[in-house]
Every structure is written in C-alpha cells, then in structure tokens.
User: Fold this.
Amino acid sequence: MTDSDHALAELTIQQLDGFATEFARAIEPLVDEQSIRAVQAQFLGKKGKVGEVLKIVGKLPPADRAKVGAAGNKIKNTIEHEVARRLGELVHAAARADLARTFDVTLPARPHGGGHLHLLTQVRLEAVQIFSELGFVVADGPQIETDWHTFEALAIPKEHPARDMQDTFYVSEEIVLRTHTSPVQVRTMLTQPPPIRIVAPGHVYRRDDDPTHSPMFTQIEGLAVDEGISFADLKGVLIHFVSRFFQRDLTVRLRPSYFPFVEPGAEVDMQCSFCMGAAVSPPCRICKTTGWVEIGGAGMVDPDVFAQCKVDSEKYTGFAFGMGLERMAMLRHGVNDIKFYYEGDLRFLEQF
Ligand code: PHE
Assistant:
C-alpha cells in the first residue's frame, strides 16, 4: 500500500465532507420542493456528485474502503436529513401563509352587539320603579285565573252586561285567561290586611285582534287601601306617574265612567304628550286634536268588593287603577301597531 493510496482516501473523505456545506448553501435560497429535489439529485442522483466521488472506492486498498464508505453514508444521511427538514419547513410556511390570507389576527375583533331588554320590559320596570318610589310594592297573580277572582269577586256576576266589555277566553266553565290584572286586587286583599299599596304588572288576554288590540297584552294594576284614602290621592298618584314616565309636566283628567268594581269609576285620560293640547297644524294624529289620550281605568274600590275580600269598608277606603303598558310605550315612542311588540323583528327591537 502506497502513501499516495492513503492520500487519495483522505482526499476523497475531505471531498465528501465538503459536500455538506456545498449542499446546504445550494438549497438555502430555494423555496419550492421541486428545486430542492433537483439539488438533492445533483448530489445523490445516479450521476450525482457523491456517487461520482465514491466510484473511487473500488480502487482503494481494502483498509481505506470502510472509512471512505462511512464518509459516503454520512454525507448521504446529512443530505437526506436536510432535505426532509427544509421540505417540512416549507409545508409549515405554506400553512402559516394560508392562515394569514384567511384571518388577519391583528385586526380588531368585530363588535358583537349585546342584547337588551325588550321595550315592554323596559317600560314595565320603569313603571314599577316610579310606583315603588311612592311606596307601592309588586304583587303577582296567575294568568290562568278563576272566574270568581276575575269577575264574581269584582262584582261582575255571570250574565252581567259588563262581561261583554271583555271578550273572555274560557279554559272551562270556571277557569279563564284573565282579561285584566284586577283579580290581583282580590288576591291581595284576601291575603293581607290594610294598609295595602301594590302594583301588579302582567299579561292579560282578550278575544281582540286589530292594529291597536292584541289577544295578549300587558296591564299594570294599582291598589291602595288604607284609612282616609281619597279620590284626590288617586289623581295625585296618576299625575305623578304620567309626568315621571313622559318626563314632562302632564296633567290627568278623570272622566266619569262605569266599572262594576269601583264607585265612582273613571276613564283616565292624560294630556296629549305630542301636542300638549295646543291647536297644532297639521292636527295631532295621536289625540285627534282633543288634547287628551285615554290610558286606562280607575276609581274608588266598591264596598261590595271590600265585602267579598273581607275588608272592613266602614274603616277603610281605597283606590284602584289599571293601565295598558303597550299603550304607554306606544305614546312615548310612537309605535303605531301593537303587533310590533310581539313579532320579534330586530329592526323594531333594536331601536329601543
Ligand atoms: N280592570 C279594568 C280594565 O281592564 C281597568 C280598571 C282597573 C278600572 C282598576 C278600574 C279600576 O278595563
């Protein structure tokens, strides 16, 4: 074995080791699989540089063959490994680019509108708030009510013509969908002694269906029972309520009317909040130029009702009122069809 044979082996090993840097430099700027594979072939392909250099192995003394062969395997591994690493990188980069095209993660989040209370709920809570400042507390009663609580106890016996005023949904002979919140008056007086100051908001039902009537609507009932309660107290409470609710000084007019459970009884009109009663042009469509709009019924609790509810009418007097909340909201917000409240159309709901 000659020195020059050894020198050849050394040279070959150096050459092979050198390919590692050469290869790394060659693929460094490449950004697609095809060109990386092409460079890989330049080194490891059939006529690749590594193969060409290794052709020498056969001519080397056996002692050197193993060393050169090992160097050959090492560079093959290095190149394979490097190709796999770069291709993996490319796949990741592509995925990242794809993501960036779909989402710009630096953009501010799209505002997601929160929900809010329904206009009628807002109006109900506001009404309750105003009355609670005057010392009234909330009372409740069932919507599926007995005929007795709804009518009989309120001095509206069967066959009484007043039943025609309220077209009733009967569940059975003795059970109805309450047509007004007044049965809560009865339930309250039967369960608690005077002094009483309650408001009872809730759904009521009547067989009625047109732009200003819905088979289900919302009333708020009021009842005050104590010694010395007068009609003036009733009027004062109502004036306070409408002025607070409409946020302007409005007065109230009590027009004599008939409800079997109050005496005297009255329709409650409030001063028109649109024209304030002035002769405006064009004429006010809300009050039809009368200057007043009806908002409910009221009166002094009839002694007959007190008797049915076991309240001593010699000692106590009381007033009661009932108002439609849809109507209050309608007057304050100009809603012109009662159906809007119940249709759930966001274009309506989002305005309030
Ligand atoms: N309950 C009556 C109605 O719904 C309104 C009312 C309540 C009248 C209280 C007088 C007293 O028409």
